[in-house]
Amino acid sequence: MKIHAVDVERHFGRGAKRVDALGPLDLDIRTGEFCCIVGPSGCGKSTFLRIVAGLVKPTAGRVEIAARSAHPAAMVFQDYGISPWKSVLANVRFGLDIQGVPRKEADARARDWLKRLKLADFADAYPAALSGGMRQRVSIARALAVEPEILLMDEPFAALDAQLRTILQDELLEICQADRRTVLFVTHSLEEALLLGDRVLVMSSRPGRVIAERVPPFPRPRTGAVRTSPEFAEMQGELWALLRGEVETAAESAGAQK
Ligand SMILES: Nc1ncnc2c1ncn2[C@@H]1O[C@H](COP(=O)(O)OP(=O)(O)OP(=O)(O)O)[C@@H](O)[C@H]1O
After folding, report:
1. What pLDDT does 128 receive?
2. Is the CB of 223 under 6 A from ligand 1?
3. Hey, what's the signal peptide range on this chain (predicted)?
4. Which terminus of the chain has fewer Cβ atoms in its 10 Å neighbourhood, N or C?
5. ipTM of the prediction
6. What spacing in Å lies between the alpha carbon of 21 and ligand 1's midpoint?
7. Best mutation site among 14, 43, 153 for ligand 1, i.e. most ligand atoms within 8 A of its Cβ?
8. The pTM is what?
9. 113 CA → ligand 1 middle, Å
């Protein structure tokens, strides 16, 4: 087991302002598993990812990570999280620089990831000159360049238009299948989760708990073609029936707070 979460809870604030954001959550993620988490807005998905990344402490419970290195996880955010003042190459090399990887080796590894993410011609460009899809590729290349044991992705494609999103989903599918690693992927999209995931977890409205778990029945290596299969539509419909109620509950409680 790579990630072992036991009775994890997280609250924010105190007294009347206290928000119960997450849990209790029990979750085991196997080494090499691509696990997708889908849930309504505000149910604590990002909070859980931050707990796994070690950026936030749980209020109760614990998360154990079977790590081989001191910094096993790398994170990809929705808003790219790349530095505008650094070139594309320097952005992708960033984690390697921090790890003290010698410049020549870091450059070679960064360039290799640029090539895999179709950015080879943009090594010297700055993020402002890139489209949203290309910036997100930079962000993914940066996370993968350090070859993390665990890749944490927080709605990485949410800011992209539908066509670009489809393309990046297919690319990520290919990359992750070529190079299996443990991935925790948060999304609002059941389609995305069923395409990418070895397992899809559906969370309740806040405080988020796992209310359903499915294993998409599509053997690897998969391609985007599974999107059009009857099993895909069936599982998407079944999970949406569950998720819809939670989304409505979340929307009602957000409305009540206004
Ligand atoms: N640092 C914080 N201080 C106070 N409240 C917080 C903090 N971080 C998160 N929250 C609250 O905890 C709840 C869960 O937030 P979180 O961002 O984890 O949800 P999410 O499921 O990722 O939401 P979304 O899908 O909208 O990104 C929300 O109500 C949020 O407002």
Report:
1. 94
2. no
3. none
4. C
5. 0.96
6. 6
7. 43
8. 0.94
9. 32
pLDDT of residue 251: 86
The domain 3-72+149-257 is placed in CATH, from the list 3.80.30.20, 3.40.50.300, 2.130.10.10, 3.30.70.1150, at 3.40.50.300
Supply the residue whose CA is at minimum distance from atom 2 of ligand 1. Answer: 12
- Are 8 and 62 in contact by the 8 Å Cβ rule? The answer is yes
Q: What is the pLDDT of residues 218-252, one digit of tens each?
A: 999 999 999 999 999 999 999 999 999 999 988 88
The domain segmentation of the chain, as residue ranges, is 3-72+149-257, 83-147
pLDDT score at 77: 84
- Ligand 1 centroid–CA 45 distance in Å is 8
Q: Is the CB of 242 under 6 A from ligand 1?
A: no
